[in-house]
Predict the structure.
Amino acid sequence: MFSCSRFVHDYDKSVFKYEEPLSGDYSVTVNGEEVPVYTCRISAYPLNRVWTGHQRPFCQSEGASFVNLVSDEPVTLTVKVNLPHKKILLKPYSREIIPVEKDGVYTFTLPEEGQFVLEADSYHHCLYIFNSRPIPCPDPASVTHYFGPGIHMPGKMILHDNESVYVDKDALVFGCILAENAENIHIFGNGLMDDSGEERFFIHCYEPFTNGNLKFYDCRNVKIEGVLCRNSAIWCLNLFHCFDVDVDGIKIFGQWRYNTDGADIVNCQNITIRNSFIHSFDDTVTIKGIDRYADTNNENILTEGCVLWCDWGKTCEIGIETA
């Protein structure tokens, strides 16, 4: 079975539909079927700084592209690169997948799920290729926040004990998630969460004034699987004093604003991040300690089977906060 994300807004109160922009840099077919190539923003060059009271200027970002595929079988892609280039690079090289070029079109097969980046000469204006296992929702009525196909604009969602969020592969959700002192939380699906509607106005990332894609304080037994996270206003995945968190197969990408760390693990225990793709502007996976939780050590933290890519900071870091 193969499918792909198609984000379509179905208005019922006006004719002014939101249309998610398509990329002109790449054309992609999968198993002979043309698939939509969507857009995001990444940093045009590595410039970060202490918060200045205003967000980084938009002109310091540049366009990139992505396809979101869902499959449980091998898929063959043909990619036409509409950018001037001399060669293409398909990363990570460890997967040993080499495209074959014919008449300016590149063909390659992904034998199983995996997350890739195709570059035309360099990382500028790259193409993210996300190919994930299907994550179904057996019973939509059992999910606290169910986002089916379409464009959704819930803003900040605050989760409590035993609540869940499902994002269908054809769902684009403009919003973010916050939970405090909650347990048994489940966030899952193959769709996209976008934090574009949130603006940063505060100097540091510790308080919930600015949320980022996903933010948790003092939570237990949290599972996050499959979802895509784009354009965070601050740190993307925030874990403050959390316990027993399992992150599996998420994709963090399209990050360019100041201090957009990938995953920040702050005074936490029993945390696993696996099979995920994290392209952050600032630090990618970082373990921190802050004064508020200085009586709790970071313990038993594992990152494995991930593709990690950092633009400016450190890919894997302890600090800089080490209380």
